[in-house]
Amino acid sequence: MKIIVIGGTGLIGSKVVTKLRNSGFEAVAASRTSGVDTLTGRGLADVLAKASVVIDLSNPMSRCRSWAQIAFRKAATCARSSRRRS
């Protein structure tokens, strides 16, 4: 099972990725440092390809509701497009 952890290199995310891997899951840490930007959508479709589960532990730069809505819409759009390609 492929599990994507958005924010997987952060304080909490890195611990979750380690626990998942130690439990035998294919855990992928997705973050800006790994080339995935949920705000712009850069790298998102590729990392979501064939994902079974996505865990979002990202720390948005702003507590603005509109940022969260934009990021969610972009993630949903990328997820739909990656499903169409597979």
Key structural traits:
single chain; 86 residues; alpha/beta; Rossmann fold; 3-stranded parallel sheet; 3 strands; 44% helix; 16% strand
General description of the model:
- By secondary structure, this protein is α/β, with parallel strands linked by helices.
- It has one domain (2-85): NAD(P)-binding Rossmann-like Domain (Rossmann fold, 3-Layer(aba) Sandwich).
- It has three helices and three strands.
- The protein has helices at residues 11-22, 44-48, 65-85, and strands at residues 2-6, 26-30, 53-56.
- A three-stranded parallel β-sheet has the order 2-1-3.
- Helix 1 (11-22) links the parallel strand 1 and strand 2 (26-30).
- The two termini are 16 Å apart.
- The mean pLDDT is 82.
Structural category is: alpha/beta
CATH architecture: 3-Layer(aba) Sandwich
Integer average pLDDT = 82
Number of domains: 1
Order of helices and strands: EHEHEH
Helix content: 40-55%
CATH C-level class is Alpha Beta
Strand content: 15-25%
Note the main sheet: 3 strands, parallel
How large, in whole angstroms, is the Cα Rg?
13 Å
The shape is globular
